[in-house]
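Subject: for your reference before the review

Hello V.,

The reviewers asked for a structural picture of the protein, and I figured it would be easier to keep everything in one thread rather than splitting it across files. Below is the amino acid sequence we used in the manuscript, unchanged from the supplementary table.
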Amino acid sequence: MRACARALGLSVWLGCAVAAQQPPSADAVLRHAIELHQAGDIPGATAEYREYLKLEPKNVMARSNLGAALSKAGQYEEAIAEYRQALELEPRNLPVRVNLALAYYKTSQISAAAEELAKAIQQQPSNRQVIFLLADCDLRLGENKKVIELLSPLEKESPDDKALIYLLGTALIRDNQAARGQVLVDRILREGESAEARLLLGTTKMNAQDFSEALTDLKRAAELNPQLPDVYSYYGLALMSTGDMASAAGAFRKELESNPNDFVSNLQIGVLFKQDQQYDEARSSFERALRVRPGDPAVRYQLATLDVMTGNIGQACTKLEQLTRDTPDFVEAHVSLATVYYRLKRKGDGDRERATVLKLNAEKQAAEPGAKMP
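And here is what came back from the structure prediction:
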């Protein structure tokens, strides 16, 4: 959660300046850099850290401090480079790894942040703040089962922790474990009406395809706390499901005002842009969504079909071929690829894809509850 990121902060290593054998000039430069950093002079501290690292490039503490100063100034990509260099020198340096994860998080490189946080937890399994931040990353990546596995042991220890209940409850509901999720929703509701409880209730009803009832809860959640992460993205989904596309677009825009890299809102507003033939805007939205969840099949499919609509048939064909190799059960991708093959006069390939679609649909129908077995 965003609060987790704020709570962890970006630690500054303020230990002893240098060892006795280092040159006094280097010692003085580093001491001055730390003094400037502590005084809040970030540009001055950054310059001094860089000067010191010219003399002592393998000093992990100085490089970590430089990363913290760059992060403080919002120069996250440069901070990431410094943290990575520090970790090359000391791979098991936990504070540096957590700071690297935070820098990735703040630049919406959520997959990279999750990877570093998972390594941090291997070193320190009991660090709750890191656990919560990893759970938030996994939730943003759609890895609901990972969130459940990560937080379920903590539920027994802290059954009244609201942040834990909300993250775990959200993951359970999104994983279609409605009964267990409802228990956590009820726990939140005992504290009185809240945006978090309303959002969870609305999400539960969305999963049950009760869109009109979900709309009521999600609208109320947005009224109670317009800044609650995901509230407008799910409100927008409910509006789309009830056919109100114009209001849905407005809801997605509100989510993106507070979180420009929200995956759901970027994906769905991209779909609406595409439907309105605003192709440049659609592509930008899809590409932002893909940066949050690299390799996501739904986004890759939208980009491929956007290529079809804008006449880039060759690019679309390449993308769809790769997508169907990576996700062979993605029926819509096979349908679109068949269409592309026919447009390219590749009838044999088109017929093969069409046969694949018929096979996948038959398998899906056979697996549905109540399907008759031969």
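For the response letter, the relevant points are probably these. The two ends are 49 Å apart (CA to CA). Confidence is low (pLDDT under 50) at residues 15-22.

Happy to draft the paragraph if you're swamped.

O.
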